Amino acid sequence: WTVMEEVRFSRRYRFCGIADRVGFDGRARPIVLDFKTGVKQKWHAIQLALYDILHDDVPWGIRRRVTLYLQKDGRLARAFEHDDRNDYTTAFQLLRNA
Fold first, then answer.
1. 49 exposed, middle or buried (CB, 10 Å; 0-12, 13-18, 19+)?
2. Is 22 helix (H, G, I), strand (E, B) or coil?
3. Residue 44: which of 70, 24, 73, 26 has the closest Cα?
4. With bands split at pLDDT 50, 70 and 90, how would you rate the model's confidence at 79?
5. Judging by beta carbons within 10 Å of its beta carbon (0-12, 13-18, 19+), is residue 8 exposed, middle or buried?
6. Cα angle vertex 95, ends 51, 59, to 5°?
7. Which residues share a beta bridge with 68?
8. Which of 15, 67, 65 is nearest to 41 (CA)?
9. Which among 54, 77, 79, 95 is most buried, taking Cβ atoms within 10 Å?
10. Long-range contacts of the stretch 82-86 (C-beta < 8 A, 24+)
11. What is the Cα gyration radius of the chain?
12. 6 — alpha (psi -120 to 50), left (phi > 0) or beta?
């Protein structure tokens, strides 16, 4: 991981956020990862798109976006990769309306 829970601010889009992890996966592909408890929600994918936009060392949309859903005891329950490019459209719409 190259970034762990570091506050980022985008001057261009005027928002900030804290991704749990940003770096590279085992195949050296860029990735943003977030830990969640509870069940999968649509907004999780949009949140990760926003984190991807914040970490502009890689053009947005190239980085893998993965949520790790944890059980109450902290064990991994499920990993889910978000690959819908429309998440970025929604993210930018939210930024324009903020």
1. buried
2. strand
3. 70
4. very high
5. middle
6. 45
7. 35, 79
8. 67
9. 54
10. 82/44, 82/45, 82/48, 82/49, 84/45, 85/61
11. 13
12. beta
Q: Is 20 helix (H, G, I), strand (E, B) or coil?
A: strand
* Cα–Cα distance measured from residue 30 to residue 14, given in angstroms and rounded to the nearest whole number: 24
pLDDT per residue over 11-39, tens digit each? 999 999 999 999 999 999 999 999 998 88
Q: How far apart are the first and last CA of the chain?
A: 31
Q: Do 40 and 68 contact (CB within 8 A), yes or no?
A: no
Query: Contact 85/63 with Cβ under 8 angstroms?
Result: no
Pairwise CA distance, residues 73 & 28, whole Å: 30
pTM for the whole structure: 0.93
Residue with tokens 């902290």: 74
| SS3 of 65-86 | EEEEEECCCCCEEEEEEECCCH
